[in-house]
Design brief:
Elements lengths: L19 H15 L6 H14 L6 H13 L7 H15 L34 E5 L7 H9 L4 E2 L9 E4 L13 H12 L5 E4 H9 L1
Parallel strand pairs: 1-2, 1-3, 3-4
Protein name: BRCT domain-containing protein
Pfam families: BRCT
């Protein structure tokens, strides 16, 4: 279920294997689409068409992730607000990747390694509990992740508040999470937790283990 391990195998930023001009073009395109903080339906359709024309033939986890998410979001040819925000986060993570990596460092998306997850990890109770998702989920589109736990009786909140029981952080992230678009939700949850609110911050890997064993 967890696709995150595939990202370490990415060939996309390996200059010996892929046309650097294509890499530069896609990173620049992602940066341009996210510059105003909004990704529209038209922009998403344009990006999918560009990938169809230029890079969809590549067997690369980074490209596959981007293309599969776009395809799922655009099944109805409309990008709703949640999909727009998820795509914005994905493209920002993508455009933040350096084109040149130090020798010996594997390219790909980087999972945050200093996130303030609850320790020990709590058991997750679904029925009647309020969840918020943030970041990019390796499992799939956020609405699919939400549907999985709604089937088990969980409730979905639009933002972090005292009423929320769990904040689930997607495993596809950015090392500089404090400065990312989803870092504000994490910091808000930390503040509430330190003030005594019953909110737990958990990673996607724990969320998946509780769901699938």
């Amino acid at each position: 279920m967890d696709l995150h391990n595939e990202f370490e195998k990415s060939k996309f930023f390996h200059s010996a294997r892929i046309d650097r001009r294509s890499a530069d073009a896609l990173v620049g395109l992602a940066a341009g689409l996210t510059a105003d903080g909004v990704v529209t339906t038209g922009e998403a359709l344009f990006l999918k068409q560009w990938l169809d024309t230029n890079l969809v033939h590549l067997d690369d986890p980074v490209i596959n992730l981007l293309y599969s998410r776009l395809s799922s979001m655009l099944q109805d040819n409309v990008l709703d607000a949640d999909e727009s925000q998820e795509l914005l986060s994905l493209l920002r993570s993508f455009s933040g990747l350096p084109l040149q990596r130090p020798k010996g460092v594997e390219p790909g998306f980087v999972a945050p390694n200093d996130l303030p997850f609850n320790a020990p990890e709590p058991d997750l109770i679904w029925d009647g509990k309020m969840f918020v998702f943030t970041g990019i989920m390796a499992y799939g589109p956020r609405k699919d992740c939400q549907a999985l736990i709604e089937e088990r009786g969980a409730l979905i909140a639009g933002g972090v508040s005292k009423k929320v029981h769990y904040l689930v952080v997607g495993s596809v992230g950015n090392e500089q999470w404090r400065h990312s678009s989803y870092g504000t939700k994490i910091m808000k949850a930390v503040e509430l937790r330190e003030a005594g609110a019953p909110i737990a911050i958990v990673g996607e890997s724990h969320w998946q283990r509780m769901l699938f064993g």
